[in-house]
Predict the structure.
Amino acid sequence: MSQNHEPLLAVNAIDVMYGRLALVLKSLSLNVPHRGVVALLGANGAGKTTALKAIANLLRSERGEVTKGTIYYDGARIDHRDPSELASLGLSLVMEGRHCFSTLSVEENLRIGAFSRRDGHHAIASSLDRIYAMFPRLKERRRSAAGLLSGGEQQMCVIGRALMARPRMVLLDEPSMGLAPMLVEDIFRSIKRLNDDEDMTFLIAEQNASIALRYATHGYLIENGRVVRDGTAATLMATSEIRTSYLGLSGEGSRDHLVASLPRSRRRWLS
Ligand code: ATP
């Protein structure tokens, strides 16, 4: 087991501007440990997507740039690396909004995710099987044009395509967006399994703090482009600001008090 105590991803006090006018991220810092699952929480417009795009160096096309601070991945500075180079280092971004290739089949979309792999046909086929085991619905629809899938199925297809590259770290933007609660649960369970079984590291931007904090070990809450709280998931869940504004619960209290305050039928979600 590696003795590396450096985080896999370290974002150090970055500022991000769009069009040299709007300062959207202000001295934002966060760490994601090796094999961690970290949640980036915040309301609409808080800056979550911008933070992920800054890490993946995808701001330029929107006239955005990191104007201060540094970003390190696996010990190397990456804030000026090409997105394709980042992909080859195993860093993958899955954006919110469904960007499957609509005229290609589901399976063709998934196979595209594996285009840079050099580990052979069998390894790729076994990854495909794993994705299908994770998302049986994709297996059923594997010959359909991706453009004909429902929104939830397209979301699974996009996540599956990113996983086909066997990334070491995935930046996931709002995986719950537009999905039925049961599917959201399935996606987060899959994330947990990939983290447990394949040591995959995740940074997940989510408005849905309730689910994100059940699966993440740590979280950061951002408001107006600044980190206003961070800590373990359990600590954040017990923070009154998060309970009232992001979990729709009231009052101060410990986790036990929080659980006790819920109707019996909802307690299992937090246990
Ligand atoms: P949401 O959950 O609604 O996507 P978010 O937390 O991901 O929100 P961002 O999309 O990062 O937030 O947006 C942060 C701020 O940056 C917002 O005020 C948004 O209007 C602004 N912004 C985002 N993209 C651009 C852009 N290309 N040019 C200018 N401003 C932008």
